[in-house]
Every structure is written in structure tokens, then in C-alpha cells.
Amino acid sequence: MAGGMKGHSETLKFKIYCIIEFSRIHGMTAPEAVDLFERYNVYSFLDVPEFRWQNLEDTVTDIDRYIASRA
Q1: By three-state DSSP, how is residue 29 classified?
Q2: What are phi and psi of 3, to 5 degrees?
Q3: Distance CA 3, CA 71 (A)
Q4: Beta strand residue intervals within 1-71, DSSP E
Q5: How far is it, in rounded angstroms, from Cα 27 to Cα 33?
Q6: For residues 18 and 56, what is the distance between their CA atoms, to the nearest angstrom?
Q7: Tens of pLDDT, residue by residue, the chain (71 residues)
Q8: Can you give the pTM of this predicted structure?
Q9: Closest to 17 in 3D by CA, of 44, 51, 40, 48
Q10: Closest Cα to residue 39, out of 11, 9, 14, 67?
């Protein structure tokens, strides 16, 4: 059980880092980024483990592409 909680905690931390980096790069507030992530279901997109192995700027680029494909 503890291993599952740690994995969930790491995923949550990663998603928070993505929100912070996305909002910084796009000059928006964190709540604005959260709204955008919810609108386009970015949180599910970020469940892909491979994202944790690349830098956050590349992940933000991938998020941008993901949102653009759904806008």
C-alpha cells in the first residue's frame, strides 16, 4: 500500500510542477493554468510516465500541442 501512495504522491508533485512551469512560461497565474488543464483534461495526458523523464520545458511544449489539438 505504501508504494502505491508514493507513486501517487510523485505523480501529484509532477503535475504541480507542470502547472507552475506552464503558468510561468505562458505568463498566467496558477489558477488560470489549472482551469485550462481541467478544460482540456491535461491531467490525464500527464499520467504518461515518460513525461517524468524529460525536462519540464519539453513537457510544456507537449502540453501546448495537446491543448492545440483539442481547441
Answers
A1: coil
A2: -60, -40
A3: 37
A4: none
A5: 10
A6: 7
A7: 444 556 678 888 999 999 999 999 999 999 999 999 999 999 999 998 888 888 889 999 999 999 999 98
A8: 0.83
A9: 51
A10: 67
**Residue showing cell 485550462:** 36
- Confirm if 16 and 5 have CB atoms less than 8 A apart: no
Instruction: For residue 38, report the phi and psi dihedrals to the nearest 5 degrees.
Output: -70, -45
What is the separation, in whole angstroms, between the first and last Cα of the chain?
Answer: 39
Q: Where are the domains of the chain?
A: 2-70
Three cell numbers written together for 27: 505568463
The cell for 47 is 499520467
Element (H, E) at 34: helix 30-39
